[in-house]
Amino acid sequence: SAPLLLLLPLLLAVAGAQCPAPAELKTVNGTRICAMFYTNNSPYYDQCCGGKSLQVMPGEDQPYLPYAWNNDISSLVVGTRCELKVWSKKGKGGNTKKFTSGAVPRLQEIKRGLLFGDWNDCISSYYCKCN
After folding, report:
1. 73: domain range?
2. Using an 8 Å Cβ cutoff, are 109 and 75 in contact?
3. Is residue 60 within 8 Å of 79, Cβ to Cβ?
4. Residue 42: band (very low, low, confident or very high) from pLDDT cuts 50, 70, 90
């Protein structure tokens, strides 16, 4: 049980990562945001969700990401009662993945399948909806 006690501070540090909580995804005037994309992550969870950020509004459907964002998303947060579906290729092609409410500080930890690597810098289209 000693090794577990040593991990406890690490687990608590992960819970307090820099990524916003799903319930915090709102514009300055209080409008709900479906998801947030970030270009930077880090080996340290408290430094993830950095770099440029992109707000994704409820109902937003992007079969083609803007050039500056295509294959450049490393962290994301999905709002409360929202669902984000992403594709690895433009025009909603390639691998697909659904993310529900929560923070994903490091997309490189999310596998794209047995042979396809991970989702870091791999999102080319998306659709986001909220209930």
Report:
1. 2-130
2. no
3. no
4. confident
